[in-house]
Design goal:
Layout (H helix, E strand, L loop, with lengths): L4 H33 L8 H18 L14 H29 L17 H34 L3 H18 L5 H21 L5 H21 L5
Amino acid sequence: MSDDRPVLKSFAVELLAIAATSISLWIVFGYGLYPLLGFPSTAPMPGRTVVVVLVIWGFMRRRGESWAAFGLSRPREIWVTLLLAMGFLVVKLFVVQPVADFVARLVELPKADHSFFYHIHGNIEALLVWLGLAWVVGGFGEEFIFLGFLMKRVADVLRGGVVGWGVALLAQAVIFGALHFYLGPAGVVSATLSAVFFGLFFLIAGRSLWPVMFVHAMWDSLAFVLIYFNGVPST
């Protein structure tokens, strides 16, 4: 039986570094910069995602790993990637989100709180900024962190297989959902279920991140465009 301790130790060091970075930035933004700008301390922190990606990239360079190892290899057939992305988007729109809404209603949770994004309503500059963040931070950053890195690392520690990838899928979904606490309980449920399905999409796509990144970015973009025209959903 092979000794898994070096793999586990390496992963533990990475997790500690990422956690320390994330918590430090949460304190700086939530209790320093955001109050000065008049933002709630629970507001989303896209800057934190960017920094965490850089931290992971540092570990990748140290270990001699390529982006391809984390689901970012060049697609062999662009049309297949686009078809998968469009299919996943349809599932997200007509299956995943309705299920999340049903679960929230079933346990009588209040609607997700999107009030922080009210400033996008009728503000084209704010819309363009958040559309850019949807693709760079939401689509690329978050999916790289949670699927490309975290899900793969957990599966590697558990030696892969159905059990390893299954645990990895659920672990990343729980963490991803918890980090969306600023949307309220219903928002956490929606984000967690979305992360489960995004993880399944990732596996179905042969562990390629491209289709999942596209779906995530498109979903966030649609939400911001709707807010621009209609305002935030009533709570």
